[in-house]
Amino acid sequence: MSIKTREALKSIVTDMGLTGFVRDRMEGHVRTWALDAMEKNPGVIGSLLHARKGGNPYNSPFGIGVKGYVFDHNEYAGKYLTGLAYLYAASPREDILRVGSELVNALEEAQCPDGYLGVHGEGDRLGGTYGNWDVWGHYHVGYGLIQWYKITGNAKALSMAAAAADCCIRYFSDRSYAVGSEFTNYSICHLYALLYQETNEEKYLKEALRVVEQEWPKHGDWMNQALAGKDFWEIEAKEKNMARWEALHSILALSTLYQITGEPRYGQAFEQIWRSLLAGDRHNTGGFSSGERAVGNPYAQGAIETCCCVAWLALCLDYLRLSRDSRVADEMELTYFNTLLGSLTQGLREITYDTPMNGTKIPTQVSLSQFFCKSTPDFNCCQANSCRAIGEVSQWAAMSGSEGIYLNYYAPCTLHIRTLGGQAVSLEISGNYPVNGNVTITLKELKEPERFCLFLRIPSWAVSSTVEAADGTQRKVHAGSYEPMDRTWKEGDSIRLTLDMTTHYWKGEDRFEGKASVYYGPILLALDSHYEKTGAEDTELDGSRMMRLSPQDGADQGCWLKANLPATNGKSVTLVDFASAGIGKTAYTTWLNVHLPDNLFLHDKKEMPIWCRGIQFMDL
């Protein structure tokens, strides 16, 4: 097991001070969606209030969609609140705080005296006789309340989360959690484990352990299957739906329980599942899932759902906290810069359900129209997750452990954090990464000199990179690791990173045999019909002449970056960053015809995929 410690890294960013493309995407989504979503979708809270008054979704003016009751309606408020919390950490604006606080107050009004916080009536609550997604809804609402508490300090939110969990514990005290929809029900064990960390109340740890040790073996048996060396996708063949993406929220409990107990089985199983998903189900875009589940084939057809990608990023975040392996942060950057930023559609309000490797980006309000509900016209499972998809970067941009501060995010920003000694400090990150590889990190607002170690993430694809330390000395750095910078820091100290942005590739197999994906740093490049009129099938790129690209900043052209690549016919072909591809409803392609040099590594399920240029992952 590569996990060496129970001490998890902590998220320490209180303001990201974003600039440039990422700021524009985030602020655009806050402006067009996050601030008025509740006002325009009254059923998100109305359905909960209706249940408190004794109603149920089948006689509710709020929960009925065009094809009947919307089964996952009760998850919306929790997913939305989680996203607001992460957005507030990224950009601590008063309007985000106000909207989140209003949502917490509305949830307080909707919560029943026994702690119930769902949409169902008596007889159907928490699964009832036939099973439903009510426990799943309680998990998401409880999780969102905990995140709001941790980031804003609102103690009422923590009490409400505990009350909702207590309601579930009482209900299941004399019955099994296996009452239908087990792949969602079991997620509640993660909420229990988190509550134990916050309250130290033994009942939460006891119930979390009960679910993992006694309930999981009945359906899915994720931990024991992983300990036996099984890949996560293999579980689907044994039991339908147990390799669906929702299960990842249950799997997160293994990480939390390992932090609490130190039980090696939890850490080993968590690591095995994460590696299995990386090897078999993380696509070239950084997205996870094919048809909403693990299938063991990164080339498979099937929707690469935004909710699945959010769950994958959450799994990565917990694995990074424990492993301290910079290559996990590389994975998060790949997913965030490409799939998640790329899930926003034109206007930045609506998000995709499916962000395919090749194709078009369609808003969820179109692709999930079967779940339309008059009281929540803009909401569905993925749209509810949109703020989290865009804002969770605040949780991994910079982190800290007892050994020092870890810096993972290099796009232009000013990260406001605290040192290990408790001093406020700002890390001003300048340059134009990832348009180029030049990154300058300057410490500001540090009142007193302080010694600590600053660990710089050196991406696994940046093979020939250098750092210039604050004292002016230069040295080469090792790709796929954290570079320690240990010194007594003072106001104005600067570090200069020069990251190797040599073009790298993922050589396709399976249905993409003969194709390749092209990467510039962490950015997947795409041929978009808006920027390049030559069709993908009519183009062959010349890989032997593409090692050193000089992309243009695309700020004035509707994209993050744009690059002209040489074709074998002597002409050039324009590619853009994946996040920008298809945003104007145009078709795009990421699996391209590329005449490749002979010295490339193939994708290997026992190594990191080729986008990291063949550097082995850990000791597999």
Q: In words, what does this structure look like?
A:
This protein is of the alpha+beta class. Helices cover 35% and strands 16% of the residues. The protein contains 19 helices and 22 strands. The strands form 5 sheets. Strands 14, 15, 16, 18, 19, 20 and 21 form a 7-stranded antiparallel beta sheet that branches. Strands 6-7-8-13-10-11 form a 6-stranded antiparallel beta sheet, with no helix packed on it. Strands 1-4-5-9-12 form a 5-stranded mixed beta sheet. A hairpin with a 5-residue loop joins β6 (413-418) and β7. α3 runs parallel beside α5 (94-110), α4 (76-90) runs parallel beside α6 (134-152) and α6 (134-152) packs antiparallel against α7. The protein is globular and about 70 Å long.
